[in-house]
Amino acid sequence: MNPFALPTREEATPPAPHPEGAPLLEGRNVTKFFGGLAALSGVDFALYPNEIMGLIGPNGSGKTTLFDCLTRVQHVSAGEIYFKGANITDYKPYQVAHLGLARTFQVIRVYKKLTVWENMLLSRQWGGLPMRKKFHAPPVETEDRARDLVSFLLLDRVMDEQAGNLSGGQQRLLEIGMALMPDPDLILLDEATSGVNPTLIEEIKDRIRTLNAQYGKAFLLVEHNIHFISDLCSRVFVLNYGQKLAEGSPDEIMENEDVIEAYFGADGGDDDDW
Amino acid sequence: MHTLTEFWKRYRLGPLLLILFVLFLFLLPLPRWLAPERKLVSNSLLFSLTQLFMLVTLASDWNMTGGFTGYVDFGHAVFFGIGAYGTGVMMAKAGWPFVPALVVGAVAAAVFAVLIGSATLRLKGPYFSIAMLGTFVAMREIVRVLRPITGGGSGLTLPPYLNRPLFYYVTLILAVLVVAFVWWLRRTQFGATLVAIREDEVGAEMRGINTTLHKITIFWIAAFFTGIVGALWAYQNTFIDPDVVFFESRTIELVMMTMLGGLGTVAGPVIGVTVIYWLRDVLWSNFLQFHLLVEGVLLIVIVLFFPEGIMGLLHDPSATSLGRLWGRYLGGGPKDAYQSTETETSV
C-alpha cells in the first residue's frame, strides 16, 4: 500500500492554523545587505508547526532573499534565525537540512544529467550517516521511500529518464519529491507553480494538502499565484522593499489597501487582477 | 547495429573482453622466463607499458576530482612530486628500504591534500584551478630551496633497482586496483554525491550533503594513489630533481587524456591515456618538431567538438558536434542516425 495515497478533497482540507505555542521557524530582525542595497530590513517572521503559510510580495521585495537567509544559503547581515528552537544563524545549509528543513528553488535545481531515480536517492537524509556507510549502496528503506514518493508525484513513468529531459512541470514535481525525501518537518517552496500547467498545479495543491493534513508537514510558500496561496494557506506574510508590509489571513491580505497599492499602484486593481 | 548492441550487452562482452585483456597483460612477460633465448618481450616494451599503467593510474586519480566532482585541478602533479620526494628523501637520506619509504611518500601526499584542500576546495571554478597551479609551482620552489633535505636543484639519487618485470607487475596491479576502485566508487552513495556536487553544489549542500567534507575526502584518496605512483616513478627512475618531478605538462597531459576519454567516466581515462600514448609514440617518431602542436590542436578539437570525450561519443553520438556531423554525412539527420538507448553519462 502506498503510504502517500491521496485522500479525498474533503479529507484533505487545510487544518486550522496554529499561531500559538513555540514557532517552528522564526526570524528575528532579519537584515540582509547586498553592498549598499538593503534586500531585507529588520524582518520579524514566525511560522508554526503544521502550518501552511504564504509569503508574497511584488518582484524584488526580498522573498527569495528571505528564503535564502532562512535556509542559510545566504548569510544574514544582522538578526537571528531559529528552527525548532535552535539558533541556526551560523549553521551551514547542510546542517539546516539535517535538522529537518528542506526547500525548492525559484530556478529549478535538479541534477540534470542524473536520472529521476538517482536524483531522489541523492536527496535522502544524510544527517547522522557515518562516512563509511556512504561507501555502500543506499539501504532498502531509502529506495522504498524514493519509489513511494516518485509514485506519489506521478513520476514513475520517467523514473529512468535524465532529469534534464523532463518538462518544466515534471522537474518542479521532482524538486518537490527531492525536498520530501529526507522526511523534513518544514518545506519551503519557492514559486512551485511557476511554468506549471493548471492541471499539474491542482495536483501539486492536492499533494501539499495531503502532506500537511496526513503527515503534519509545515509549508512556507513563495508565490505570485494568489489563488494558489489563498486555497492552501491559513496565513499570509507580505514583503515589500525588504520590509514586512502586512500579515493575516488570505482574505484580509486581499483586501488590505497597502498590499493592493504595493501590487497595483495607488489606483488599485480589480479582484481579477490577482 | 542495434542487434549487435543487444548481443554485446546480453552476453556481457564488455566485461569479458576487459578481463581477458587484463589477463593477457598479466601473462605478457612470461615468455621472458619460458623462452628467454627468443627475446619476445623486450625491456623497452615492459618499460613503455609500465609508463602507460602509471599514466592510467594518474589519470584515474585526476578524474576523481576533475571528472566526478568537477573541480579541475591544474596542480594535481604536486601529489606526484610529494610522493616521489617523500620516498626519495627517506631512501637516499635516511637509508630506508623502498616499501616503507613509499608509504611515507603516499601518506605525505594524502596529508598535504587534506591541508591544502581544506583551503582551496572552498574556491570555485577557475579560482580553484589557479590556486592549485600556484600550489604546484610553490612546492617546486620549496623543494629547490630545501637543499639539505631534498638536494635542491642537484636532485637526489636513489639506490638503483632495475627489475623491469617487477615494476611492470606492480604498476599493472595498481592501475587495475585504482580503475576497479573508481568503478566501485561510482556505484556507492558517496560516488553519487560527488556527481551531485559537480551538477549543482548549492543544491547538494541544501539537500544535506556536507560538500566540503566529501570534496576533501575524495581529494586525499586521489592524492594518496598519485603519491604511490610518484614513489614508484622515483624508484624506477633512480634520480629525481625539481624540474623533472614537478613538470607542469604532467597535469596538462592528465587533463587532456581524461577529457579525450571522457570526464567523469570510469573507462574514459584508460581510453584517453592509451590513445594519446600511442599517438604520441607515432608523432615523436615521425614528426618530432610538431608533436606538441598536434597535441594542442587535439585538445582544442576535444573541447570544441566532443567535450564528453570518446565515451560520450560512444554513448550518445548525437549529443556531440562530431557525432552530428557524422550523422549528417550518413544522411539520416542527427537524431535519425543515432538513437541512443543510454541515459547514463557515466559508465
Question: Could you describe the 3D structure shown?
Answer:
The complex is a heterodimer of chains A (274) and B (347). Chain A folds into 2 domains: 23-99 and 188-193 and 218-274, P-loop containing nucleotide triphosphate hydrolases (Rossmann fold, 3-Layer(aba) Sandwich), CATH 3.40.50; 101-183, Rossmann fold. Chain A is built from 10 helices and 10 strands. Chain A has helices at 63-70, 93-99, 116-122, 131-134, 140-152, 168-180, 198-215, 226-232, 250-255, 257-264, and strands at residues 25-34, 37-47, 52-56, 78-83, 86-87, 101-103, 186-190, 218-222, 235-240, 243-248. The longest helix of chain A is centred in the last third of the chain and has 18 residues, at 198-215. Chain A is globular. Chain B has 2 domains: 45-246, no CATH class; 256-347, no CATH class. Chain B is built from 19 helices and 2 strands. Chain B has a two-stranded antiparallel sheet. The two termini of chain B are 20 Å apart. The interface between A and B is medium-sized, with 38 and 26 residues.
Give the N-terminus to C-terminus distance of chain B in angstroms: 20 Å
Q: What does the main sheet of chain A amount to?
A: 6 strands, mixed
Main sheet: strand order of chain A: 6-7-8-3-9-10
Report the uncertain regions of chain B.
333-347
Largest interface, with counts of residues having CB < 8 Å to the other chain, equals: A-B, 38 and 26 residues
Beta strand % of chain B: under 5%
Helix content of chain A: 25-40%
Query: Judging by the overall fold, what is the CATH architecture of the largest domain in chain A?
Result: 3-Layer(aba) Sandwich
- In terms of per-residue confidence, which ranges of chain A show pLDDT below 50 for 5 or more consecutive residues? 1-18
Q: What's the number of structural domains of chain A?
A: 2
Q: Helix count of chain A?
A: 10
| β-sheet strand percentage of chain A | 15-25%
